Structure formats: structure tokens, C-alpha cells
Amino acid sequence: MESINEAPASDLKLPFIDFSSEPDLKQGTHYWDSLKSQVREALEDYGCFEASFDRVPSRLRTDVFGSLEDLFDLPLPTKQGSTLSPRHISEVTSGVIQGTPSLRALG
């Protein structure tokens, strides 16, 4: 069986989890437990997932992603001043999938 680390990056598809299907998401319900399991499995297998939650106003979504672009467009010296401890570096590199772009992170 081919592991995630052996599969070409172009063949990988992130898990998709829809958080908006249940109008009143409450801890302890069957739906909550199902979502919790999906999130855990996605993080264990892929380290991330694609999430959908349609109750976030589109203006807020636009503002957040615009701010993220500004954050990652910071000058290189600013980014280099942000460091990760050896413990965090090992957590990041242990989940890297061969052939994917380098991870960009801030301390």
C-alpha cells in the first residue's frame, strides 16, 4: 500500500469537512462526535484539511484572507526574525509530504 509520503503531491486530495451541515452544532451530539472523528483522522493522516463553514460572512472571509496575504508578504528580515524551537521544527518536518512546496511558518 502506498503511503502518503510516497504519493506524488499532484495525486493528493485534502479531506473536505463541512461544518455548516448542522444548524446547531453542540458538543456531545452524534453530529459533533462525527465531525470530531473526521477532524482527528484528517489531521492524523494529512496534517490538515479543507473546511467549509458557510455561516461566515463573505466580507469577513475576504478581510481575513487579505490580511493573510499581507502577513506572508512581510519582508524577509522580518520573517527571519521569527524562529521555531527545535521541538516545533521536528513537528513540522515530520509531516512534510515529499514533493510539496516548502512550508512557510511564523514563530
From TrEMBL:
Pfam families cross-referenced by the UniProt entry: DIOX_N
Domain of life: Eukaryota
Ranges for domain Non-haem dioxygenase N-terminal: 14-85
SUPFAM superfamilies: Clavaminate synthase-like
Coiled coil: none
InterPro entries according to UniProt: DIOX_N, IPNS-like_sf
Gene3D superfamilies referenced in this protein's UniProt entry, alphabetically: B-lactam Antibiotic, Isopenicillin N Synthase, Chain
Gene Ontology molecular functions: metal ion binding
Keyword terms, alphabetized: Iron, Metal-binding
4Fe-4S among keywords: no
Name of the protein described by the UniProt record: Non-haem dioxygenase N-terminal domain-containing protein
